[in-house]
Amino acid sequence: MSSHDDKPRPNGEEKPNRSHAKDAQDKNLPDLSRRRFIKGAGIAGMAASAGALLADRVVEALPRPQTGAAGAAGVLGPGEVPVTLRINGKTQTLNLEPRVMLLDALRNHLDLTGAKKVCDRATCGACTVHIDGRAVYSCTTLAIDAQGREITTIEGIGSAEHLSPMSQAFWNNDAQQCGFCTPGFVMACTAYLNHEPHPTREGLEKSLGGNICRCGTYMGIKDAVLEAANATKSKGAVA
């Protein structure tokens, strides 16, 4: 059986040549020869190299940071300045950057590690110290702002050999477990009792709300404050 193209055509019309039609279509396609491909890749590579060279020159033109006094390149901002602090009755002079917090000055420069660095954002109270008799978070107090004020840490209200009345009351009432919150609680409770010599459990809950005990020894802490209050009525102050 003959195909459709094999049928006789009127007026002597010749059968279309498929190879010729394909050649005509190929003439309209871009020349993707190996030579042209390599040439195009070379042009693209030259453009990328030129862009990278331009970017390097822009970076070189930017101002470079000045080298600080300590020789550390790339550090911008004020350097260390003299800071004088009155801590536990002693005057301490340190060289600190203005951004250094009081907690870091105590722990890293004076080896007073009683105040703990736990949350570092003024929510847990583990870093509590006294400034002019008031309980404050040392993790959010700039050391430079504490100049000219009386700072007291837990090391300044007693020692391992001679516990303060509040620390002794914490011991007696088992008001500590892991110990991370204990120094902050002792300082907060001491400041509270110095201003309120007749504490109540309701008053304690309100006044000590800025300190958190993750072990949950709140009942022991309340009992400790009440015991310390009874032990210090004749003295008029806990520390």
3D structure, described in words:
There is one protein chain. The protein has 239 residues and is α+β, with helices and mostly antiparallel strands. Among the domains are: 79 residues, Ubiquitin-like (UB roll); 83 residues, [2Fe-2S]-binding domain (DNA polymerase, domain 1), CATH 1.10.150. The chain has seven helices and five strands. A five-stranded mixed beta sheet has the order 2-1-5-3-4, with helices on both faces. The N and C termini lie far apart (119 Å).
Which residues form runs of ≥5 with pLDDT under 50?
none
- CATH topological fold name of the domain at 157-239: DNA polymerase, domain 1
- Strand percentage lies at 5-15%
Structural class category: alpha+beta
Mean pLDDT: 83
Main β-sheet, spatial strand arrangement: 2-1-5-3-4
Can you identify the CATH class of the domain at 157-239? Mainly Alpha
Question: Helical residue percent?
Answer: 25-40%
**How many helices?**
7
Compute the number of strand runs.
5
Write the H/E string, N to C.
HHEEHEEEHHHH
**Rg, alpha carbons:** 40 Å
- CATH architecture of the domain at 157-239, please? Orthogonal Bundle
